[in-house]
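It would be a great kindness if you could assist me with a short task in structural biology. The matter concerns a single protein, recorded as an amino acid sequence and a row of backbone structure tokens. Could you please explain, in whatever detail you think fit, how the structure tokens follow from the sequence? Thank you for your consideration; the sequence and its tokens are set out here:
___
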Amino acid sequence: MKMGIAPEEKCALVVKPVAWSPNGYRGASGPKVVGGFVAEFGYGGEEWNNLPTRLWKGQRVFHTQSAEKLNGYADYGHLAILMIAMQNDTQYIVGLACAVRRNDNDDMAAISRKLKLDAVGESVWEVEAVKKSFKGRQVSCAIGEAAIRRCTGGVRPNSIDGLTNRYRSRSTR
């Protein structure tokens, strides 16, 4: 795909809508939504973005989905993401990440091990919205590729790997 000026020579700013979090983006909260991933699975990967303990190699680790064409900017740290959410008919800026870098699979595995992200699965399965989404399926397992397939009967949500954190940023808040 031709992008005009190459990502290594310019920056991109993205405004990304995310689900509102009543607990300050410090864990799964079962936000009330109308559609999309959160409505289908009962949680969103962004729900952990404000945990101050999510640091790896001196950078804040967070998750959000991105369009494939923006990954080129993240490869060079030339991406900024402004995360917004709506509550009571008002839009709020709930997160800003600058100098965003995309993590490769090796990075994501290392981050998952260091931050013990498999343990996050237990908190996910405690959320009523998640239990409702997976009603009738085993829900007492940790998040991870094999566990997700086991718990969901082979269904793999398109961004469950978000719990292993897709991006990191120089931003510390």
